[in-house]
Amino acid sequence: MLPIFTISVVSPLLAPIVLEQAQEVSKVPNVPFFSQFLDIDATEWKKKSCGIASLAMIIEYYEPKLVPINSLLHEGILSGAYLKNVGWKHQDLALLSEKYGLKGLSYDLSGTDKKTALAQFTDLLKDGPVIASVHYKFDPTSTIPHLLVINGIEGNTVYYNDPAADAGNKEISIADFMKGWKKRFIVIRPEKEMAWNEYLYFNKTDEASTKSLAKI
Length: 216
Prior knowledge:
The chain has helices spanning 14-23, 50-62, 69-79, 90-96, 114-125, 174-180, 207-214; strands at 82-83, 87-88, 102-108, 130-135, 145-154, 157-161, 170-173, 181-190. By secondary structure, the protein is an alpha+beta fold. The chain has a single domain (32-210), classed as Cysteine proteinases (Cathepsin B, Chain A). A 6-stranded antiparallel beta sheet has the order 3-8-4-5-6-7, sandwiched between helices. It has a two-stranded antiparallel ribbon with strand order 1-2. The longest helix is centred in the first third of the chain and has 13 residues, at 50-62. It starts with 13 loop residues before the first helix and ends with a helix. The relative contact order is 0.17.
């Protein structure tokens, strides 16, 4: 009598199917959303709280339920992070995150060509969401400064949370994003994850650099 062997056979067709499904999973993080119009209580600050709402999204992403958005607004005002008739000072928003175990850096690549700036921006997005400075509604003719959160970029699509919108997880093409992006942004990460050599992009204290911090 011949011995009986049990042989496990895996269909070669299954592996590619599983791999293809895995590749379809989005790597763009799901960033919590805050509305500057619905979540900010003070009426006089609703139109001016895009920076605080964006910062609140980043803090909530890394440290859930750690800070109420209205408390964060109060802290920002007291710290002098808001410059009247100009907007939220980028580095001051970054410093505000330190109270919550995070570290931030303000980047100003406005003097860099679009291709290089986008490449650096995209590379930093691999580690998490970033606060970006844009023309309101990505309209390059708009004089209204605005801050929002870029969740990530996949293919030719930019995914973002706009605190002036009614909900998060919006989409825009890279081409349209580039029309409204000012090439200035704020990177905030948990302190233990922050690579301090990123200070290479922000290591000047001259007047021009200081002025750039106040712009949004």
